[in-house]
Amino acid sequence: MQICPGHIYQLDNSEFVLIIDFLEKDKYSFIPLTENLTGGNKITEIKFSQKLLYPVIREASVISAERILQEIKELEKEKYDKILRELVKHSAQLYLRNTKSVAARKYIPASGKVIGEAELDNMIEASLDMWLTAGRFNFQFEKEFAKFLGVRHALTVNSGSSANLLAITALTSHKLGNKKLNYGDEVITVAAGFPTTIAPIIQNGLIPVFVDVDLQTFNICVSQIEEAISEKTKAIFIAHTLGNTFNIDAVSDICKKNNLWLIEDNCDALGAKYKNKHTGTYGHIATFSFYPAHHITMGEGGAVATNDTSLFEILMSLRDWGRDCYCSSGKDDTCGKRFEQQHGKLPFGYDHKYVYSHLGYNLKITDWQAAIALSQIKKLPEFVKTRQQNFELLKKELLKFVDYFIFPEATENAAPSWFGFWLIIKEDVQFSKKELVDFLETNGIGTRNLFAGNMLRQPVFTDNSYKIRVRSSGIKQSSELTDDDFMLLPSTEAIMNRAFWIGLWHGITSDDIKEIVEKFECFFSGVNQ
Fold first, then answer.
1. In terms of pTM, does the model score above 0.70?
2. Which of 240, 294, 295, 358 is the catalytic position?
């Protein structure tokens, strides 16, 4: 009998093995596949030796040819495929366990990712599928993500920024009739945050209207919203800042009263709840990011979510080149009318797969990315719990410095999914923000600003003339703003000048927090001398 590496054989003791390689003198290296059999050629369990360090073959993994009775040729292709996939994953896991040791941390970053064998397994599965574009992992993740949030529809995209672009662009669709956003309409937002919450407003020919934020919650100052509304105002687009929810009841009431769209930028708040319901489920559309700094990751990636089926179809069209067809990648004629419809002024029966109802993009992800996220979402509740615990521990330990800082407060009725622990340095202290941040960074503690600070002071606004409004002001050109305009947002200015945040992400341990607190103590021992 010719014995071939890569084939499965039954031994004289009825065990099944996968032959790896010929060694010498009729000896072969092998991997045991199962310990429990039910007879015949039926393999009921796939199990690999944890002692095997492939390709280093140990004595226990070598067998003579005379013990090999027969090749299992009748094994179903599907099961054979599964065995080979498990072998590849097993080898990769051994590599990970034996080469990726955790070094002592010299720098505690403000954000990061936690990934391991489960993510590696899924990445390998997706790679072996060789589908590459959005496929089975993506469809399963979209389903699981929607289920986690408690919404009807979730759609993956290639970043949180793309999710924001998609959300605003969807509201300009002609399919919304007189509810659509038109060129020159206004969207209320804040200047203290990330630039890609604001960018798609301008990119769609709309006018951002900026109101201030609250210093303790870092979220929109609700009392300023109604004064900023004009006859041109059609939407509110704001973030749950650093994982702390904005006052959803108050904002939603204003939207209902004034017939406004509400988009939740939930990129920094995945897992947060307001009145025991997940954020990202209150607005007409919500956006999410899966960048490595966020609550879960897929490398690069994001998502949009909605309970509105009409909006979902628009979002999907815009994500997928603007096409009218809703068939999944690799699928055709889902509707059964692919060549039986009239669209625009095209010939009757024009292939629906090539009919376009929007000027869209290609913002899809790969199945490899979705495979990572599908593993990550199972860990999300524990990640969120760790972030919440780290927040409480940091606050407890740093409250000794209450004379120097304004500390974060959770919004009433909220259970935040904290993204970072922010601190606002009080006025008239004996040190500057730069001095403290420089000290922390030099001593291995990562820090971050609240992203753009005051976005209106950024070069993209001062060097270009975009139409904007600040609170109840008239239309202004961004390049012509003065200090008087900036000071209409005093809390935003304070955050830019005196606030920063440190890490509490799910990879930070209690020992890391102890180290962080010790560095603060060291800094203030010098200040108080």
1. yes
2. 294
